[in-house]
C-alpha cells in the first residue's frame, strides 16, 4: 500500500510500504477513506516530537471501513464505517477506567502516527478497537466526522473543559488554528459572555468570528490591553493557549483574572516560564495535557444533531494520493489560507 512515511526531521514521502495485519485479537484493520493532516504532524516534521522513529507512517485522524477485526473485537465488524480516534485505549488499566485514555498503560494513548504506524495511508492497524474506533451513523459525513478524531475533542477537553468555561464568562483563545477554532466552537456551547480570539493571521481571525468569537485581535495589536479593556481591567476568566510557544503561554498567564484558568493546549517544543511568584496570589489554575477523546461519543451526537459547525474548518480537499501536495498547502497557511485539509 501507499503511506506517508516520516524519514527524520524535515523529510517525509508517499512511499510503497507493506500492508498492516492484525497483530493482536483486539486490533482492527481499517481501509482509510478520509484522512487529515494535523498541526502535530508538522511538529513531528520539525523535530519537536523526538520519539517518532524514521520509517513511521504519520497521521492520527481518519475515517474508513473496517476490513478485518481481531477475534476479541466486540463493538465493530468488517464493513462498518468508523471514525479512528487519535487516542487508542485498552479500557482496562487504571487510567482508562478513569477515562484518562491518553495515559493508557497497556500500550494505548497517542500511538498512531507516533510510536506505531499511523493513518495517512491506504490501510491502518488500530489497536484496542473497542474503544478506539467509533461506528458512524449514515447521516454523518466522513469529511465532517474526521474532525472529531482529534481537533474537536482536543479543543473541547484540553481547552474548554480543562479551562472550566461557564456561562457568561470571558474566554480568550490564543491561536485560531483548527484546535483554537474547535475551542471557540465548543466554548460557545456554554453560553459564555464573550469570546476573544487572538492570532497573527487575518484569515484565521475571520474564521474564529464565523465560529462565534465576539472580538478578534491581531497578535501585534496588544491583545493583553484589549482583554483588559473588555473585562474592566480584571482579565479573562479562561485563557486557552492553542499555539504551542512560550510567548503565547506566558501571555495567557498575564491575561487571566484572579481566580481564573489558563488551559494550555499547545504542544511546546521548548520550555515556557511559569511565574508562580505572580500566579499563586492570584489563585490561578493552570492546566495542560494530552487529549483523552472521552468526549468523542458526545461530540458525535452533537455533530449528528447539526450542532457542531465542523465543515467551515475545511478549506482544501485532495485525493489520498495527493498527500505530498496536501502537506505543502497545509504547511504554508499564511500563503494558502489553509485551515484543515481533507484527503479522500
Ligand atoms: P496551528 O499551527 O494550525 O495553529 C496555531 C495558530 O497560532 C496559527 O493560526 C498561528 O497563526 C497562531 N500563532 C502563531 N504564533 C502566534 C502568536 N505569537 N500569537 C498569536 N497567534 C499565533 O495548530 P493547530 O493544529 O490549531 O494546533 C494548535 C496546537 O495544539 C499545536 O501546538 C498542536 O500541536 C497542539 N495540539 C495539542 C493536542 C493536545 O492533546 N494537547 C492535540 C492536538 C494538537
Ligand atoms: Zn492531531
TrEMBL record:
Classification via PANTHER family: NADP-DEPENDENT ISOPROPANOL DEHYDROGENASE (PTHR42813:SF4), ZINC-TYPE ALCOHOL DEHYDROGENASE-LIKE (PTHR42813)
Positions of the Enoyl reductase (ER) domain: 8-343
Keyword Oxidoreductase included in the entry's annotation: yes
Keywords of the record: Metal-binding, Oxidoreductase, Zinc
Cofactor(s) needed for function: Zn(2+)
The UniProt record lists the keyword Phosphoprotein: no
Organism of this sequence: Streptomyces axinellae
UniProt protein name: Zinc-dependent alcohol dehydrogenase family protein
Family classification: Belongs to the zinc-containing alcohol dehydrogenase family.
